[in-house]
Amino acid sequence: MATERRAPLDRARVADTALRLLNEVGLDGLTLRTIARELDVKAPALYWHFKDKQALLDEMATQMHRRMTAGTVLDPADTWQERLLKVNRGLRTALLGYRDGAKVFSGSRFTGIDHARELEEHLRFLTAAGFTLAQAVDAVRTAHLFTLGFVTEEQGVRPLPGERREGYGIEERARRMADFPLAAAAGRLLFDDYDRQFEDGLALVIAGIEARYGIT
Question: How far is it, in rounded angstroms, from Cα 127 to Cα 138?
């Protein structure tokens, strides 16, 4: 009697399954037991590949980064400002593809050194534009942390595109804060039109880098 052969269990398959489940259950609901059930294995089988949940998150973040870099097209003719814009727009898009994507990415340690090629390219690009290595690192880190923090807050309000967490209704908030008219009016600027918010904020970061180091 023929039996169905399952794909071998490895780190990549476990991480891919975890990323698929993330949109359904969120980070808090993503347990090794849940992933094992989806893979039709016993939970202890996963410990052969990941010693704990953080090790799994590291691999998930690595997979997210690989997919992000594969989908980001960079032009050698870009200015350094355009390079920072493209890279961080790509990061935001990648993070928004997963419920709690920014939380998974934040604080995770990439497995392997696949990301080193991309980092080397960015640093060479910026130093060629006139940055010192220390300035280039600061510029990359500052823009990266802005994007990561922005998406963390964005996903706190909108876990997935089209969803809005209860309590963040703009009109309801304005009614509750009617005695504070500026704070009430700020709600539409704080909790709506995140594309505009992100672009304006990233432009401020890049303008600050330019002003700080005097590199145009």
Answer: 12
Q: For the chain, where are the E strands, in sequence order?
A: none
Between CA 22 and CA 61 the distance in angstroms is: 12
Q: Which of 119, 17, 98, 106 is nearest to 54 (CA)?
A: 106
How many angstroms separate the most distant Cα atoms in the chain?
A: 75
Q: Which of 163, 194, 198 is nearest to 89 (CA)?
A: 198
Q: Length of the chain, please?
A: 216
Residue 49, amino acid? H
Question: How is residue 214 annotated by DSSP?
Answer: T
Other beta carbons within 10 angstroms of residue 171's beta carbon come to 9
How much of the chain, in percent, has pLDDT values that exceed 70? 97
pLDDT tens-digit readout, 67-119: 888 877 889 999 999 999 999 999 999 999 999 999 999 989 999 888 899 99
Burial class (CB in 10 A: 0-12, 13-18, 19+), 174: middle
Residue with tokens 């990359």: 140
Q: What is the DSSP string of 121-166?
A: HHHHHHHHTT--HHHHHHHHHHHHHHHHHHHHHHHHH-SSTT---T
